[in-house]
TrEMBL record:
SUPFAM superfamilies: Cysteine proteinases. It is found in: Cytoplasm, Cytoskeleton, Microtubule organizing center, Centrosome, Centriole. This is Centrosomal protein of 76 kDa. Centrosomal protein involved in regulation of centriole duplication. Required to limit centriole duplication to once per cell cycle by preventing centriole reduplication. Residues 10-69 form the CEP76 N-terminal domain. The lineage of its organism: Eukaryota, Metazoa, Chordata, Craniata, Vertebrata. Residues 102-259 form the CEP76 C2 domain. Gene3D superfamilies: 3.10.620.30. Belongs to the CEP76 family. It comes from the Eukaryota. Keywords: Cytoplasm, Cytoskeleton. Pfam families: CEP76-C2 (PF15627), CEP76_N (PF24654), CEPT76_peptidase (PF24656). Residues 364-494 form the CEP76/DRC7 peptidase-like domain. One of its GO terms (biological process) is regulation of centriole replication.
Amino acid sequence: MALPLEKASELKQIIHQQLSKMDVHSRIREVLAETIHEELAPQHQQLSEEDLMKALIRRGIIDDVMKKLSFVKDMNEGEMTSTPKPSTHFVDSQPAVLKKTNIDPTRRYLYLQVLGGKAFLEHLQEPEPLPGQTCPTFTLCLHFRNQRFRSKPVPCACEPDFSDGFLLEVHKDSLGEGSKMLDATTMLSICDPVHIVLIKTDTSGETMLAASYFLEWRSVLSAENRATNVAVELLGVGTEAKVSVGVLNIKLEMYPKLNKTLSQEIVSTQLALERQKTAEKERLFLVYAKQWWREYLQIRPSHNTRLMKIFAQDENGVNRPTCSYVKPLRVGRLLDTPRQAARFVSVLGYERAPVIGGGNSKQEQWCTLLAFLCRNKGDCEDHANLLCSLLLGFGLEAFVCVGTKGKGVPHTWVMTYGIDGAVTFWESLTGHRYIHNPIKPDDPPVIEQPKPLYPYRTIGCVFNHQKFLANCQPSDVVEICSFDLHDESKWKPMSGEAIKSVCSPGATTALPPFPPLCASAVDAAGASNELELQLRILAVEHRKPWQPMNLNVPQAFLLEMKSSKMLSGEQCLMVILSKDSPSTLCTEMQGDHLLHVFGLHSVRKYCVVEVTKCGLQFVLEFSHILNLRVLSGLCLLANTVLYFKTFTLLAEILCGDTEVPLRSEV
């Protein structure tokens, strides 16, 4: 579109005034003189326009001019010929809102910008989704020096449209001098990488770990224009660790700009020295581990059959010492007690590492903590490592136990060692705790032995971030094992110095840093109020007139309840019955009250009744329950009301102003 003559002359005048204000003409003359005297050979008498432009770009004059000039696009609404349309196959329910970020001018920041992806060939032949149809998405998760970020989800495609930027603060861990702005030399000594995890979410909401990559960011310290572009090739995980997933185009830039950059040779030399130092430490630890294993087998040749994990593969197929997967993790006020920590770990999903092919074989894959948290599910080893780290953060002496459970299935769990020698087992998948009371096989038969309640059968070794101990007792059965870890005749320890050389923070550059836990973005009070409101509306819509009715309750069940001590005094029983199927599905005990649920498989009509010594009292009848989650919510609500021995709140919430019905005898 051509500008009118008056607009063009006005624009030229503005540009001329700005260039005169910046004194660009004198700077161009200086560059021209320097180029003629310094860069041109004596036989050349003319300077081409291309040579002059290269000299201006090299000295940054063009960039300075473009930064000073600002162009404002003024467009009325009537002049807009078209409006941008959202993607027909993916709509972000919560579009990102651009917000201003408070930047400390005394700190240094690394701006990591993802400019897009290429060569995700797995999605090359996928058909184009229909308008409004949900599709699988990609999400990037980043961690750098206790800072976690998450990109907005983008549709899976051969060239996914990643367009996110992340502002990472670069600082020292120490106080005092560590709070000052860092120069290039100081930042060169910070060896923490940027951990990038790619998560794929399918249409059903299931997450899958697609790739995990450690980005070396210090190449930006030697960039001429203080910024550099990097093409990152993402590889698969597990059995596909050597297969390319795709390529990310990433731009790295420092803010504020570095006053002085380092040479590329200095950066390359520093990185090479770090890799050499890490390789030497790993080699020495491997030599020590082999010698330690030979000594362990000399104690008893049968030790060769025990389950021992000195090294474990992560999601990238890299062998790392198992002690490096555990570290004291302090979460502040996010989790108040160790039992809350166990509950938190247990609600994370359990999924074994996928294996290509059939059979009962298990893929060896211990995920890093960031990959486990971002995927929100993992194997029993991932749960045990996280729970042990949290318990260590609470000050407990915790260890990860490696052994077997029923039918010889390999399993890991957590053990805490009390001051008085008490041993407690923590099952990370369920949050249950078990007290270990060892059986003494040498005692006479008349002495009653404790019956173990835990599901564990054998134990081979225990470890945490500082210790690794192997079980060298004659039997590895958990029931008869002694857990006096200070007795070297029963537990053979590894050298603490050897473990510290490869597992302590900052010991090697190969260890991924531990990410912090983040608070939930869900408002618990608001979600509770919304759930209560939905239950109230649903119950009111589906309630029916209150009428006494005869319930088809199995006589054996009633006789059992009448003869049970549970119905003594004012204690009562909450029962959910179905007209179609009176069979019991589940039973739950809460305090003095028992909750029975009948016939959930043939859901048509339900009624809530109170069972006491006097008989049955009809409370509510409802039908057409939409899902079992709503039904369980009603059951919990009714059970809470029974705990306070009143039906007023139940009648108010579930049935509006309807009065509580009369009692009907059975």
